Structures are given as structure tokens and as C-alpha cells.
Amino acid sequence: MRKGSIKSDRINKEVARTLSEVIRSELKDPRIHPLTSVTAAEVTTDLKYCRVYVSVLASEEEKEATMAGLKQAAPFLRKRLAETVNLRNTPELRFTADNGIEYGMHLSKLIDDVKAKDDQVILQRGEEPELN
Question: What are 55-77's pLDDT values in tens digits?
Fold first, then answer.
């Protein structure tokens, strides 16, 4: 199986979907924040390892606690993955923080702030702001 093939993409998506479902519905660890989502999973071509990208919308302390909770829950998650997804090997899970969602929200806020300031300047001139 080559990296970037349709089969590997399908496996990555199924692993990410399954882990997301198990984390959301079956993990009872209080350290894991409710706003935790699996953004992606990358399984190696030999199916031995899987890097799981996790986004947590919380403070830094809660993010660290969530990552520690996920690391400790990795054997349980791997077992549930083996029961759900039929793979030749069940990959060892390695969790990585993904800050992409937070970064996107930050950029969106910056754009909204600039637009609001621009609209204020236009209103001060007595002109009508554009409706976009």
C-alpha cells in the first residue's frame, strides 16, 4: 500500500472516525476535555503506527491534561480500534496536538476586527458600509 493511495486514505479516515467516536462516547477519563476532536489520522504503510492529530478547544492546562489522558488511554483505544476496524495489524497510537482549528478561529477574529474598524471609519465619513 503506497502512501497517498485511495486505500491508505480510506484507512486513515476510518481510523480517525472510529477513534473520534470512541473518545466522544466511551472514554470516561475526567482529564479529557469535552471539546476534543480527532482532526486526522495517519497510519504508516505497514500499519504498525498511527499518528493521531487531536484538537482541543480549551486552556493550555486542559490541553496538556487531555493529551496525558489520551496517552494513558491509548491501549484501550487501540483495543477498540482492533474490534471495530478490520486491519491486518492494529497500529500503535501516538497522539499529536493539532492547533489548526484554533489558528483558523484566531485568523477569523482578526479579519472580523479589521472589518469592524473599517466599517467604523466608513460610518465616520458619513458613507454607507458595504454589505458582504
Answer: 998 889 999 999 999 999 999 99
